[in-house]
Amino acid sequence: MSTYSKKDGNKTEYAFNVIRNRILDGEYGPGYRIVAGRIAQELNISPIPVREAIRQLEAEGLIVYKPYCGAVVQVYQEEEYFNVMAVLALLEGYASAEACRYMDSGNIAALEEILVESSLAMEDYDFDKYASLNRNFHATMISYCKNSHLQNLIEDEWNRLTHARKTVFPFVPQRIKSSNEEHKQLLEMLKNQVSASEIEDFVRQHRLNTVKAIIEKKNNAKKTRKP
Fold this sequence. Notes:
Blueprint: H1 11-25, H2 36-43, H3 47-60, E1 63-66, E2 70-73, H4 78-99, H5 105-123, H6 127-142, H7 148-160, H8 164-171, H9 174-191, H10 196-225
Antiparallel strand pairs: 1-2
Helix pairs in contact: 1-3, 2-3, 4-7, 4-10, 5-6, 5-9, 6-8, 9-10
């Protein structure tokens, strides 16, 4: 059980980090009711900083307020997911194109290590681990981009997809294999020093391919149900 101490610094920031980490780790799943008083008691602080932390998490899109219920963890919505993925396709494509200008063999090796772990997770059908490594792969890639504002924008959009990541790969498990193959292709492109514009186009399409896989799975399911 977490309890606040002075070494944790600002109480609001501490409450924010505790709640946010529990959401990202899945301890507080979609629809989970966030009770400020209960959390405040657990953290040994007053409800005021907890309520402020909840408002900040609402601004991030991780928490929503529902009538007669209060603050709850955001539930995955397909339209929202598709919209965010479209935005990420643009942002990450550009960020990756900028990043490749500053990458060397050591940077590519770091991505290869993540890819090895991803392949093992794929073989074990460990969806949660693969989703985490998938994000780590892209985060490492764009970390070489010198535009910190762009990195922050991408981080904000990633946080909106927190819960969706845990449901997408189980829904379209074949996407894990194709996603991993696309990561391998991207590494080869980096090694061969293809143009930044090619990297941008590839990463953009890579993101949109997940959306495409979901739509195809749904359409096929509808055809199967027809008499």
